[in-house]
Amino acid sequence: MDFEITTRDGAARRGVIRTPRGAINTPSFMPVGTLGTVKAMSPDELKALGAEIILGNTYHLYLRPGLDVISQLGGLHRFMGWDRPILTDSGGFQVFSLSAFRKISADGVQFKSHIDGSYHFIGPAEAMKIQEVLGSDIAMVFDECIPYPSTHDYAAKSVDVTTEWAKKCKELQNPGQALFGIVQGGMYKDLRKRSTEDLLAMEFDGYAVGGVSVGEPKEEMHEIIYFNAPLLPQEKPRYLMGIGDFVDMLNAVDAGFDMFDCIMPTSNARHGTMFTSFGRVSIKKSGFKYDNGPLDPACGCYTCRNYSRGYLRHLFLAREILSMRLNTLHNLYFYQDFFRQMRHSIEEGSFQRFKDHWYPIFDRCQADQD
Amino acid sequence: MDFEITTRDGAARRGVIRTPRGAINTPSFMPVGTLGTVKAMSPDELKALGAEIILGNTYHLYLRPGLDVISQLGGLHRFMGWDRPILTDSGGFQVFSLSAFRKISADGVQFKSHIDGSYHFIGPAEAMKIQEVLGSDIAMVFDECIPYPSTHDYAAKSVDVTTEWAKKCKELQNPGQALFGIVQGGMYKDLRKRSTEDLLAMEFDGYAVGGVSVGEPKEEMHEIIYFNAPLLPQEKPRYLMGIGDFVDMLNAVDAGFDMFDCIMPTSNARHGTMFTSFGRVSIKKSGFKYDNGPLDPACGCYTCRNYSRGYLRHLFLAREILSMRLNTLHNLYFYQDFFRQMRHSIEEGSFQRFKDHWYPIFDRCQADQD
Known about the structure:
The structure is a homodimer. By secondary structure, the first copy, chain A, is α/β, with parallel strands linked by helices. Chain A has 15 helices and 17 strands. In chain A, strands 4-15-14-13-12-11-7-6-5 form a 9-stranded parallel sheet. The first copy, chain A, has a 3-stranded antiparallel sheet with strand order 1-2-3. In chain A, strands 8-9-10 form a 3-stranded antiparallel sheet. In chain A, helix 6 (about 125-135) packs across helix 7 (about 150-170), helix 11 (about 265-270) runs antiparallel to helix 14 and helix 13 crosses helix 14. Chain A is globular. The two termini of chain A are about 30 Å apart. The interface of A and B includes residues 41, 64, 65 and 313 of A.
């Protein structure tokens, strides 16, 4: 894996990550393919709307269909028919957010499956092994993601654990697979600094900031974003994990982040919330009932080119599968197009104008990430 | 509308229905688009897999989204983005099969919506009006579809009602829209004959046989199929309504029917039952868990060209939307390909060989139409 920054605009960076499976233009948004499919989409559609990399969830794939199946069927790329890059998370976040029971030891975490209640164990060694079988292009270290709020004492101990686990993962890095470290430390700047320094000593291929958007106020999140970014090395990709809100992403790119992932576009689409050039809108809106126009006249996606607001509203109310398809396709296209325009603005040195344009459009809609 | 028979093989007919929106090669299978979408499919996909005509349900579309919406949004074709022919049923079958309450009078049927319990009235005049708004290429007369079993007395009275309603529909035929009569009469040959003669006197553009596959044994159904087909005029399309089982369709084409519709391929796909060159198969089959081969090695559809049985099994078990898409796409392709091959066999004078090949493959699976 190779990373090149081609243009800067303030702290914002326009770059390219080159992998054997293809290039990723940054800033980049990664659609989430939890269970070996980006929900409602085919790989062809993802390519057509411009996705250059997708994210796979280690925790979910480990439980379903299981490593035996993915191994037998040739790894995650071949299994799901996606030949562009895949980044896999390490399972850490889901172990802490989804499983009912978990017991942390120095070696990892014992947890109960959210599907059938069976017991499993994932630590740094297991996370690296699973990601080897999945065959992702970029793997993530196994980390502890602490809740908000946490005490300084707990957060400090957690940083130590995350550092130890990161070391172990680095030792076990799989050949041909990039590995990113994950900065933790909650909302404590001294701990964020310490976690960052711990990881920098290990020389990862890229650096992620985790543990944000875990329930903290937006102001605190933005402060951590702006604090943590400049601590990371200029020459490596910087990934802000799990963030897909436009206001957050605008701040993060402004601070110097390069990569994002979130279920927001896909999950919202299935629930009828659409992202448009005039902000968020519910497809259920009664005003759309007889509306023959496209959802977003400024959008060039398949959905907006071919279907009316009235039809999309009907499909959603009738719970048709095509509703989830067309909505997801639009939202993912909107995200990719937003990032394409954002990259262009950095190239042209007009990122601040870009940010000033979009910030108020999405600023009012902070609450309902789902 | 124009119908031409190009080849015969015994009683089986190879023909073409020509409409301003395109040609329909017969024998033809029409995928069902109940609510303005063939479930899980886009119009582009339907075209790619070879569908030349689809069916829309008057009853469903009348209730949701309602005629006001479809009228405002330019008719059913424009509403759903399908520019090839559409046949609409008259609502008769659903009024009798779906609504909890119904009261028949000379003018039509009062019924309760299966969605919200509201009261509605559809008779021949309303059915023709609704189909005018929908703007289908082929409309159906409003008929009474009686349950199985029914007494000869009740069935006879029902034939009289259906004949009266057919007359009314014929008087109200919409300009530019073909209209098919529907033969009823239950399992009574004398009534089938009377109903057929009543309709022939009205000179419809095509003739349908309704009231089969309503719970009767297969043998009775096949007897009615073979009895009723030769009573219909040679020069008009013959449509056997609601039949999608391969054994039934093979018999019906053998008897001289030209058109079919059924939810079998789409509904079964969503429930994981797939139609293949080696018969029906459940995608859940545990033997598919590690299977890297295509669902049907003999199939050229997008699903079989790109995905493994193991992946399809996983998607189904994880209840992913892509599962319903890929399964539906395969089943509909399989149906279209089956009909393409069947038409070819008639052209070559080898329909009996075609029938003898497929009959045993699907004969064992009669029970579970859904």
